[in-house]
Design goal:
By secondary structure, the chain is an alpha+beta fold. It contains 13 helices and 18 strands.
Amino acid sequence: MAAVKTDELNKEEIVENGEEEDDLEGTEENGTKDPAKKKKKKKKKKKTADADATIENKADVNNTSEKIQSLSVEESAGDGDDKKKKKKKNKNKSGKGPSKEQTNPPTIPIAELFPDGNFPEGQIMEHGPAEGINEQTAKDRFTSEEKRALDRMQQDIYQEIRHAAEAHRQTRDHIRKWIKPGMTMIQICEELESTARRLIGEDGLKAGLAFPTGCSRNHCAAHYTPNTGDTTVLEYDDVVKIDFGTHINGRIIDCAFTLHFNPRYDPLVKGVQEATEAGIKSSGVDVRLCDVGAAIQEVMESHEVELDGQVYQVKPIRNLNGHSIGPYRIHAGKTVPIVKGGETTRMEENEFYAIETFGSTGRGQVHDDMDCSHYMKNFDQQFVPLRLQSSKQLLNLINKNFGTLAFCKRWLERAGASRYAMALKDLCDKGVVDPYPPLCDIKGCYTAQFEHTILLRPTCKEVISRGEDY
């Protein structure tokens, strides 16, 4: 709302100045030239001063305008005077677009597109209504000087996570158009990962991929990526979940979407996507995690899909959930359920969350299945003595290349590891590294997933990974 009002007031000031100048021109034509010239100079000075004031006014409200742009669009949707207004596209904080155009396919690192270090802001929303919290409190956060000051103190962190988000957006924009049935899953992962590495400007543990590319198909909901030698092919009738992450200095974007080619799966995918949006909308500072889960379940179970003459209710997969995200830590301790019940713990300021929902036509519960490909060093594990030299060498390689970020067997081989099976098993047996096998519902069912990373800023909620696609 503030952005619309400000623009209208500025236009009125300029029109008034223009009318005053027309009056001056009329006076000059009536023969009183000398007084008019003096008066005209005064008017020009006044017009310049007014214009300067207008520019300053725009600068003062620019940040606030951008922060509430999504709310402005939602509220103006029912206003007849504002029907022609369109939702603003992502901009960097300075209000300027990229300094150069991205290639097709994308090859230019995001840092080169935004050399001033101001990366596009995500979608700005109010914090969701919290149990026992006055609704006006969330609205007041937008204009609170104290909250805005806290926002400014975190700008370095915000820019790092926005940098990672832009790399994710451009990578998935390319890969969504590029993927076709008939491609192997390894081919798909290698194209996605090479694109993301270029755009993020891979630099050891400072910048790169946050975890292996998930490309789980059909009844497999999560944690599948092909190992070397896997010849699996993507087929027309598959429902595939593309889940990948990027990071800058450990600030992780965790974002996923579902691809399908057969339109019969549209209701399933739509139900899960709308459930994700419900989870995002209900999230916010002081919101209880269990309330987010209840909102997700209500929306998801309102959808159904007909497959081969049988109608299935879209069920949330109750033993999968979203989670908080910390620096170099994809699961930072808090879980965001996708069904009612669960923790009454509240969300807090400056926390990052992956709002992640899974829907299924099966039982709505997953179990470990198939060959393991995902691994991650135990974040909390203390020093463990290792007897095998091969285990020590592999752990050194993991520490150097991945730290506490997740990795897969293909990535170990890319980093130079060979004949590592026994060493990797030894590290898992000792609890230094944890395996994360593929998670599957019953065979023959179909699962879908959508996910966004959100940041609970003091002033607002920012859906950092939001793009034009979803």
